């Protein structure tokens, strides 16, 4: 397993600088052996290996200008390739919710939140994506109770619960 270091870049340059410094400090303390990429601009850091630097954003934000300063995009893959066919693209978030805060939101346009449905997703999408070389990031490893403020299925996208116990799923052997 590897990680991708990311931070939100907003209008507060002091917050942006602090987040980038936190990433640099973590790399200095723990090394880069298990780091596959950054979602921030840390190219100036001297590391024992090359780590790609890129961006994640809505498809409408992908452009040739952003591509010029990136090694990869994380967005809608079709939009990504249209902006720059030479750049590596990945699905930034994929997954399946296993519950909902309200019964009314348990099913959305024929898709039902639930552990059996998550298992179907894992058994179909993961192996197919691995076979055809589609890069993806599963969202999220654990349920996130803090997202209850957003309602619906938001807190329940984890492969495990908020206590870091795996749900009743089997990881496919692709």
Helices and strands in order:
Blueprint (H helix, E strand, L loop, with lengths): L2 E4 L6 H18 L4 E5 L14 E3 L7 H5 L3 E3 L2 H7 L4 E7 L12 E2 L2 E2 L2 H18 L3 E3 L36
Parallel strand pairs: 1-2, 3-4, 4-5, 5-8
Antiparallel strand pairs: 6-7
Question: What characteristics describe this protein?
Answer:
single chain, about 170 residues, alpha/beta, four-stranded parallel sheet, 4 helices, about 15% strand
What does this structure look like?
The structure is a single chain. The protein has helices spanning 13-30, 64-68, 77-83, 115-132, and strands at 3-6, 35-39, 54-56, 72-74, 88-94, 107-108, 111-112, 136-138. It has a four-stranded parallel beta sheet. A two-stranded parallel ribbon has the order 1-2. It has a two-stranded antiparallel ribbon with strand order 6-7. It has 174 residues and is of the alpha/beta class.
Brief synopsis:
This protein is α/β, with parallel strands linked by helices and 174 residues long.
Beta-strand fraction estimate: 15-25%
**What pattern of helices and strands is seen along the backbone?**
EHEEHEHEEEHE
Largest sheet: 4 strands, parallel
Give the low-confidence spans. Answer: none
Q: Roughly what is the average pLDDT, rounded to an integer? A: 80
How large, in whole angstroms, is the Cα Rg?
Answer: 18 Å
Secondary-structure-based class equals alpha/beta
- Overall shape: globular
Q: How far apart, in Å, are the first and last alpha carbons?
A: 16 Å
**Biggest sheet, strands in spatial order?**
3-4-5-8
**What is the number of strand segments?**
8
State the share of residues found in helices, binned by percent.
25-40%
* Total number of helices: 4
């Amino acid at each position: 397993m590897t990680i991708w270091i990311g931070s939100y870049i907003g209008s507060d340059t002091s917050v942006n600088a602090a987040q980038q410094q936190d990433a640099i400090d973590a790399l200095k303390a723990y090394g880069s052996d298990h780091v596959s990429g950054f979602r921030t601009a840390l190219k100036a850091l001297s590391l024992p290996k090359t780590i790609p630097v890129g961006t994640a954003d809505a498809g409408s934000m992908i452009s040739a200008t952003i591509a010029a300063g990136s090694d990869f995009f994380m967005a809608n893959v079709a939009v990504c390739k249209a902006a720059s066919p030479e750049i590596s693209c990945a699905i930034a978030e994929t997954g399946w919710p296993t519950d909902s805060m309200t019964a009314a939101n348990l099913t959305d346009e024929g898709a039902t939140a639930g552990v059996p449905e998550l298992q179907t997703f894992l058994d179909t999408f993961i192996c197919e994506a691995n076979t055809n070389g589609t890069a993806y990031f599963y969202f999220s490893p654990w349920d996130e109770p803090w997202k209850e403020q957003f309602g619906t299925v938001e807190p329940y996208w984890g492969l495990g619960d908020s206590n870091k116990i795996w749900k009743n799923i089997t990881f496919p052997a692709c």
